């Protein structure tokens, strides 16, 4: 039988070890929260996605997805005062030469262009290098008060990146990204990467998808809906009349956007106002 003082000491030591296990190694500490305490957007939740121009607060929707670097804590607070949730857009799988931390990325992790000016794929196998850089980016999101993160470029293994990336490499990286968000008390969305939904459904709180209707892929997002997790979806080349009926049947949160992702939006009428 364990002596009372020894038992107390052991419990204290175990608690300390648990605290260390939650640490990200960045020296910033974490706000790790169980899923029950994180924001969990539900299917059909209406949203706005604006990554260019000054954020317009005119859209009467419960969720805004905006750029994490370009927007301030004041903008996030303004959204919160209006009862909105705020998602922090951050590129995790590609380097951007216009970001304030661009110089922190060593050349050896930079690959081919991803098709956008000033952007190059990252070697996601280099987690020892990329993990602390992404942790700092997610710290920015948390400090500004965001509720969730939209990590972009999470399907490099299916592209010509300049690196021999595998599906296993992508799973490892994407799970690392999800944990970085969860360790900071934020929800996290799986961006595109349809092939790995079965493996990653449990790691992500919602999905963000582009053009699943145009490419006849929307049914592949049903596992998120079945799990009670929102799918935030946009089309660029189809009018709402071409995809809203299917979106409504599937339970997606859908709208048409222009490619520059400004304030303009043409939502499907099936999205409803839920912010729980």
UniProtKB/TrEMBL annotation:
- Record keywords, A-Z: Signal
Q: Does the record's keyword annotation contain Cytoplasm?
A: no
Domain Glycoside-hydrolase family GH114 TIM-barrel residue range list: 47-263
Superkingdom of the organism of origin: Bacteria
> What does UniProt give as the signal peptide span?
1-21
Query: In the UniProt record, does the keyword S-adenosyl-L-methionine occur?
Result: no
The entry's protein name is Endo alpha-1,4 polygalactosaminidase
Taxonomic lineage from the root:
Bacteria, Bacillati, Actinomycetota, Actinomycetes, Kitasatosporales
